[in-house]
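pls design
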């Protein structure tokens, strides 16, 4: 992927770092280099939007398959009741 113009940072490096860039996991200097590159390289900017779109889809998908309503509370209640039954020295029977 390249727009044919020379860049301070190679397109391949920018694309490889896009996910980390979007997640804010790159250093300040790398962030600046990528931000500059994206303003001058439409193909990489397009790629950034694609990565963001996919990430948004993943977030939405994982949210929709999240724990069903009430299940987490039931699990916690079960764990808590088991724990109380197993408490050492707790003879309530
Ligand atoms: Zn580029």
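designed seq:
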């Amino acid at each position: 992927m390249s727009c044919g113009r020379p860049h301070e940072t190679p397109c391949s490096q920018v694309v490889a770092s896009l996910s980390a860039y979007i997640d804010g996991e790159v250093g300040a200097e790398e962030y600046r280099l990528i931000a500059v590159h994206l303003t001058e390289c439409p193909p990489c900017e397009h790629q950034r939007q694609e990565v963001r779109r996919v990430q948004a889809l993943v977030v939405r998908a994982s949210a929709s398959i999240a724990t069903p309503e009430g299940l987490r509370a039931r699990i916690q209640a079960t764990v808590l009741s088991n724990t109380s039954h197993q408490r050492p020295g707790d003879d309530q029977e």
